[in-house]
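Recap from last week: sequence in, structure out.
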Amino acid sequence: MSKKIMILNGSPRKKGNTTALTAAFTKGAIEAGNQVNEFFLGEMTIGGCKGCFGGGKNIGSPCVQKDDMDKIYPIYQEADVVVLASPLYYWTISGQLKTAFDRLFAVAECDANYRNPPKEIVLIMAAEGYGFEESEFWYDRLEKHLGWQNLGKILCGGVMEIGDIAGHEKLKEAHILGASIG
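Predicted structure tokens:
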């Protein structure tokens, strides 16, 4: 069965190593008959969550802030799978990704019990080094608290400069993971 996949790409480098991983993932996912929408968060204007609890009144535009999140909300609401993609920044995800993900809380506010819509989730990361433990800790707890289902993680270390990932085995793993969804 075809699934709707949304990628939140928190890399500021649109042609960087994280994007190479999401491209391989996307190729596999599309070959398996899925629909994929990728958002390059670094090119979007997204303000941080204000913690106002003022959202949830309009499912079409759930947050009181009006910015580029309004492009993400409808895709997120329809998505079966959410891919969180980021370079490793100070042993965790990028600020771009964290800011956008925090703002998804406005959708949970549309539910009387603040439940997030059920999703499957994937983590894709690239890094100069190999210290993914903090990111995995955050991701694993996020998955548990939201009640989402982990489909897999692609964690690619040793790639700093744009293009360092060329020919890396993690590209094949990303393609296989994308192709496995459906």
